[in-house]
């Protein structure tokens, strides 16, 4: 298949159009503005709807309306804008509406910087809005994965009637890479007979809501959602292991740092150091069992978690999975500064010294 | 031509809005009855005088009034 | 025997939860009757707000969505843009529309979104128990301005219909009330006209309905009607604020 050179953000938009995205609602913010720009130029030509909203809040609520009426709807933003969307995301989850949300992460907190970062891991995986809910979070580490995941995200959202987030960072959004537009596997999806799209002769009226005012009803609704999240945990967990079979030190990283880690692995292996990479691809559901199993292997002596976040956000999930079985060291860089290959190599070596 | 007003009295909240719009002043609150909600429901005292204008029904916030003409 | 008046098919049989004498019920049926009479009910999609009418989806018999607080115009935008041939309306109170949702309503009107907004202005937050709204009148008491609203503390109340009328995308704005039969008839004509203009794809259409809140105003329903006439109408004048078709 022929390779084409695409910029990450534009590829995200094109992937969504190819996945049958009916409508896009967004607001400009660096480093993701190419997504709405591309959508404004190309989605209407494909028969879809583009609206530049007055705010991220409005954008996610336009998504809520269109999704509630049965459309494939999407919005994109970057960290501060995704904070604003949290209200809409919890309503989508509560009302069980499928939608795709792109977060092209930048440095924070607050306005932070427009450079790439991974400080929104908690927000994405813990549910940044109110209440008990989960969103499937896909974390690509290159442009090819990004376009594949964006297309798949629509199917995952429709299958579970749940918002799905593609969590990339400003680096993936801004860089150009050769990609293939290979066909992405389509899922068998249930009909959207729940959509509030006008009765048109239906014998009842459809209602989209997240309010269940009676305590028992709200409790039942939460139980129903929790059962659905359990299904997602069973079916949707994804991760990648690179040279973990004999690894003594395992780097855990997702997205851009995982990509940097591949270079570090090459150098370490060339020096005879048995290093491996464990890369969560779904951040929620987190590949907890797989990481736990790896932590139980005798050959694994320690973990080195690397993130573009100084507080160590995925680190919490790594700790929960490792359950104290092996020591964990942490390397975090934030504010738009990326962890380097040299820093990773140094930390792997010092971790190895400690445990040997 | 005569008319008849019927009230779904169980659903009346006793707001009295219907009593203010009847041109014949025949809609009143039935002080002898307390409905399941605990209100004195609206009623018509002299149905023969009803002209079937449906004003009472139009203003009823709870849509509990039906008006028919014979 | 002929039925002169019965509950509209645009409403379900559900019992309304509104307080005695609250005008929401009257306004609901005017919207429902308008949709039925214009033949729009079967394709209609409504959006209810957060506030007293949060459960309006149980009462209208068309498809309904419940929006987050103030965002109904954004939700309606997402629906109408993808369903341009169907009637779409938001039903919003004054806290929802004029306070937390001010940005959404202004921008929907600016874009000339082709849906209809029914704005119920009762000058107070009803559902949460009578707090001051942006539409609360000067001197009017509320639980967050217990001696009455002052200009110093909260500024002058907002006249939404007039404000939205300044936007080109808003083609029709009328303020009505439902205190008596003449005004109920006018209100229904306004609502029908708004839906007709929507279906003619003319632009954003807006009907502000002044309403009582007997419970939170601390009055009987009948005294509340009088209070509305004496206090609200002088500040919020009734009538057509804007009708773009008639301007030439």
Characterization of the model:
The complex is a heterotrimer of chains A (356), B (70) and C (248). In chain A, α10 (288-295) packs across α11. Chain A starts with a strand and ends with a helix. The relative contact order of chain A is 0.12. In chain A, the strands form three sheets. Chain A has a seven-stranded mixed beta sheet, sandwiched between helices. A five-stranded mixed beta sheet of chain A has the order 10-12-11-14-15, with helices on both faces. In chain A, strands 1-8 form a two-stranded antiparallel sheet. Chain A is α/β, with parallel strands linked by helices and 356 residues long. Chain A has helices spanning 8-18, 34-42, 56-68, 79-95, 121-126, 143-160, 170-174, 215-235, 255-270, 288-295, 314-322, 341-355; strands at residues 4-7, 23-26, 49-52, 73-77, 99-105, 136-138, 163-169, 176-179, 207-208, 239-242, 249-252, 275-280, 282-284, 302-307, 328-332. Chain B has a single domain, classed as Alpha-Beta Plaits (2-Layer Sandwich), CATH 3.30.70.20. In chain B, the strands form two sheets. A two-stranded antiparallel ribbon of chain B has the order 1-4. In chain B, strands 2-3 form a two-stranded antiparallel sheet. Chain C is built from nine helices and eight strands. Chain C has a seven-stranded mixed beta sheet with strand order 3-2-4-5-7-6-8, with helices on both faces. In chain C, α1 crosses α7. The longest helix of chain C has 19 residues, at 181-199. The interface between A and C is large, with 41 and 36 residues. β4 (65-69) of chain B pairs antiparallel with β1 (2-5) of chain C.
Global outline of chain B: globular
Structural class by helix and strand composition of chain B: mainly beta
Task: Report the portion of residues of chain C in β strands.
Answer: 15-25%
Report strand % of chain B: 15-25%
CATH homologous superfamily caption of chain C? Thiamin diphosphate (ThDP)-binding fold, Pyr/PP domains
Q: Can you tell me the residue ranges of chain B where pLDDT is under 50 for at least 5 consecutive residues? A: none
Helical coverage of chain B, percent range:
under 10%
The total number of structural domains of chain C is 1
Count of discrete alpha- or pi-helical segments spanning 4 or more residues of chain B: 1
């Amino acid at each position: 298949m022929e390779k084409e050179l695409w910029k990450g953000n534009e590829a995200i938009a094109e992937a969504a159009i190819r996945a049958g995205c009916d409508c896009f609602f967004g607001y400009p913010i660096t480093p993701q503005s190419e997504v709405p720009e591309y959508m404004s130029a190309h989605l209407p030509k494909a028969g879809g709807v583009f609206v530049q909203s007055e705010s991220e809040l409005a954008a996610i609520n336009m998504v809520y309306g269109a999704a509630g009426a049965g459309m494939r709807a999407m919005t994109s933003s970057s960290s501060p804008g995704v904070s604003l969307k949290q209200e809409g995301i919890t309503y989508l989850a509560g009302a069980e509406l499928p939608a795709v949300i792109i977060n092209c992460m930048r440095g924070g907190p607050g306005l932070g910087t427009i450079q790439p970062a991974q400080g929104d891991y908690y927000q994405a995986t813990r549910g940044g809005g109110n209440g008990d809910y989960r969103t499937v979070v896909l974390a690509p580490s290159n442009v090819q994965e990004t376009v594949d995941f964006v297309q798949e995200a629509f199917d995952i959202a429709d299958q579970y009637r749940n918002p799905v987030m593609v969590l990339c960072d400003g680096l993936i959004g801004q860089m150009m890479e050769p990609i293939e537009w290979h066909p992405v596997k389509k899922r068998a999806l249930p009909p959207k007979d729940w959509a509030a799209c006008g009765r048109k002769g239906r014998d009842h009226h459809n209602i989209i809501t997240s309010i269940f005012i009676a305590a028992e009803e709200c409790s039942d609704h939460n139980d129903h959602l929790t059962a659905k999240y359990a299904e997602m945990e069973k079916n949707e967990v994804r991760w990648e292991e690179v040279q973990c079979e004999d690894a003594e030190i395992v780097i855990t990283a997702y997205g851009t740092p995982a990509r940097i880690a591949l270079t570090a692995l090459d150098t370490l292996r060339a020096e005879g150091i048995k290093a491996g990479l464990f890369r969560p691809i779904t951040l929620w559901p987190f590949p907890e069992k797989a990481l736990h199993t790896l932590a139980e292997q005798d050959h694994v002596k320690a973990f080195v978690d690397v993130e573009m976040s100084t507080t160590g956000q995925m680190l919490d999930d790594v700790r929960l999975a490792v359950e104290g079985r092996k020591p964990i060291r942490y390397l975090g860089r934030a504010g738009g500064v990326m962890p380097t290959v040299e820093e990773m190599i140094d930390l792997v070596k010092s971790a190895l010294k400690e445990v040997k | 031509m005569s008319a008849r007003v019927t009230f779904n009295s169980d659903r009346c909240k006793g707001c009295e809005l219907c009593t203010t719009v009847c041109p014949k002043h025949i809609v009143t609150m039935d002080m002898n009855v307390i409905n399941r909600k605990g209100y004195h429901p609206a009623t018509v005292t002299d149905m023969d005088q009803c002209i079937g204008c449906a004003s009472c029904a139009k203003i009823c916030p709870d849509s509990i009034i039906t008006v028919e003409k014979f | 025997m002929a039925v002169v008046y019965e509950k509209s098919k645009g409403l379900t049989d559900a019992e309304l939860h509104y307080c005695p004498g609250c005008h929401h019920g009257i306004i609901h049926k005017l919207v429902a009757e308008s949709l039925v009479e214009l033949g729009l009910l079967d394709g209609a999609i409504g959006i209810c707000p957060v506030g007293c009418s949060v459960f309006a989806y149980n009462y209208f018999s068309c498809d309904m969505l419940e929006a987050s607080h103030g965002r109904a115009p954004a939700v309606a935008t997402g629906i109408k843009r993808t369903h341009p041939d169907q009637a779409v309306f938001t039903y919003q109170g004054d806290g929802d529309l004029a306070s937390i949702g001010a940005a959404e309503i202004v921008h929907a009107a600016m874009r000339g979104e082709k849906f209809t907004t029914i704005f119920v202005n009762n000058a107070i937050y009803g559902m949460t128990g009578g707090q001051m709204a942006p539409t609360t009148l000067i001197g009017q008491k509320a639980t967050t301005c217990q001696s009455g609203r002052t200009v110093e503390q909260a500024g002058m109340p907002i006249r939404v219909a007039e404000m939205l009328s300044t936007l080109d995308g808003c083609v029709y704005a009328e303020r009505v009330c439902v205190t008596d039969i003449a005004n109920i008839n006018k209100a229904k004509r306004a609502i029908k006209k708004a839906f007709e203009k929507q279906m003619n794809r003319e632009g954003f259409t807006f009907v502000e309905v002044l309403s009582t809140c007997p419970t939170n105003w601390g009055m009987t329903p009948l005294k509340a009607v009088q209070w509305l006439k004496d206090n609200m109408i002088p500040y919020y004048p009734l009538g057509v604020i804007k009708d773009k078709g008639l301007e030439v």
